[in-house]
Amino acid sequence: MSEPKALPESSASQPTSTRTGPGRLLVAIYGLFALAASSRAAVQIATKFHHAPVAYVLSAFAGVVYIIATVTLTAGSPTARRIAVVSCSVELVGVLAVGTWSVLDRASFPDATVWSDYGIGYGFVPLVLPVFGLLWLRYWVRRDRSQRTIAPPAGDAADSALPPSEIDR
After folding, report:
1. R_g (Cα) of the chain, nearest Å
2. Beta strands in the chain (DSSP E)
3. Burial class of residue 155, CB neighbours in 10 A (0-12, 13-18, 19+)
4. Non-local CB neighbours of 128 within 8 Å, separated by 6+ positions
5. Cα dihedral 20/25/30/35 (nearest 10)
6. pTM of the entire structure?
7. What tens digit of pLDDT does each residue of 37-61 get?
């Protein structure tokens, strides 16, 4: 009987999902923000919507963005990662747009949102979180590309991303 072959050291030690390593921290922070932003918005909309409707609707939108980011970062599949890139990008644009709007037009924001003043009420975490999220997702895109060119898929050489002359070597 033949002994099972061990995986090469490099592939065995690499994470296989966006929710491993630093991704765990990202998922935890996104989950916390999803809960905080959506809960806060739900209470504000239910109890005092007339006071600051723009701020409360924007907080609810931020909560939805955080929920989508949490779910897609947790799933970690290639499709989920694409959705997470869109979610983190929308979040970054939202923080910058709402942050600028809240600084220039204070009257529209009698109450703060998660993204107002660039997330100052949350220690600027809403400003830096999408940047870290996008960097983490970029790592996965590069990792996937490098693995496709290094290790041909199981099967014949016709299925490989490498030219046949490189496979025979």
Report:
1. 22
2. none
3. exposed
4. none
5. 110
6. 0.75
7. 999 999 999 999 999 999 999 999 9
